[in-house]
Amino acid sequence: MRITEAYVRMLAPHVYFWAWPMVNIYNRRLVFDKAPRPGLMNGVLPLAPLNTLSMLHDYIQPEQRWVACPNQDVVYGAGVIALDKTPVIVQVPDFGGRFWVYQAVDIRTDSFARIGAMYATKPGFYLLVGPDWQGDVPPGVSQVFRASSDTGMVAPRVFQDDTDDDRRAVQEVIAQIDLYPLAQFDGTMKRHDWRTLPSFAQPGSNDAGGETQWVVPQTFFDQLAPVLADARPLAGEQALYAQAMALLAAIQQDPSLKAAAIDAVSRADIEVIGPLLQFRNWGLPRGQHWSTVDNGAAFGTDYFARTAVARSNILVNTARETKYLYQDLDSEGERLNAAHRYEVRFAAGQTPPVDGFWSLTLYDAHHFFVPNALHRYSLGTKNKTLQLESDGTLIIHVQAASPGKERESNWLPAPEGADFSLFLRAYWPKPEILDGRWTPPAVHRVG
User: Fold this and answer.
1) Residue limits of the DUF1254 domain (predicted)?
2) What's the CATH number where 233 sits?
3) pLDDT confidence of residue 209
4) Model-level pTM?
5) d(Cα 373, Cα 238) in Å, to the nearest integer?
6) Is residue 61 within 8 Å of 72, Cβ to Cβ?
7) Are 109 and 79 in contact (CB under 8 A)?
8) Reduced to 3 states, what is the DSSP secondary structure of residue 244?
């Protein structure tokens, strides 16, 4: 039936907001599909053909702009899975006592596999399959994980101390991390020296220093049909899918309606999606202006949280794997800005309660690192030179200028004169951080 332009302008932004994370992952699949072989995009970010993996060999560099809110606590890997083409084998080495976790998410950014230290996962081989796969599981595969969509991503994270000794030691472990099509499985551990990867030029663009634009209003409706075909309805979503498909049918038949839909979602991208980059605009309050989400990578039909996380810090782990706490404001509710000096004081014995490790990371207003003379973007467990006060208090100095040589070990450099955000990660969190009994201290302005 005919529908009005006003109805299109009402419905299109709703569909856009709902499907934004799915189109985001879909477009990452399109880019990874162009990779000639495993390598590093611009020498800084893992890129590999579909159903394969690329690994860094050290912390991620500040130049990358593909994923907002990276961390410098782990050695990252990344691969896009296309399970409509083939199931894939995930290869897990023996990590010993080192923290590690493999994230495997579907096109909705929900996790579908439990592979990591917190799950007591044993070394070996694990199989990821699509929603319709009915093949035989070969001998030697320890467990099968079924995704709800054919498109997804796998991202290993392996803890590394900020020391030259551990940079060398981690190489033997990560050499056995791999991802490959089931047909290549022979029951033996494949090895790679990830330090020898080639570098590729970036097939994308950045927006004024921000994250690469993965969802483009002008092409969104051209991509929506294959995305919805992959991301099957969750319970209760059938009517939403029907509305989206009816919208597509109408705008495909009438160019003026399509122009109206694109105009409406272009506005929504700026007015609704854009503000979600800022942590202070969403999340569950955790005191002292810190916020969090409790359903990361398990969003279900919480469309607001899913899109807010996808816009600001996509590809989060589940809460059992990592608890994330976000901060844009000081203790007085003023925007953090490096024209001022701040302190974050952890009382004795009150650093984040974890079975893995923790870190406090600083990002610019776009949620990326700003290069500094120390090449330091976070402080936490990985840092072996942190100094405690005589009473056991840990003070982290957050400011643009050095707090003095005697305090530089506890200095988290901020971008001079610019807004910034703080981001606390608690890997393998203990119950008291999951249920809110422990919360981070306030960020106090001291000058």
Assistant:
1) 51-181
2) 2.60.40.1610
3) 72
4) 0.96
5) 53
6) no
7) no
8) helix
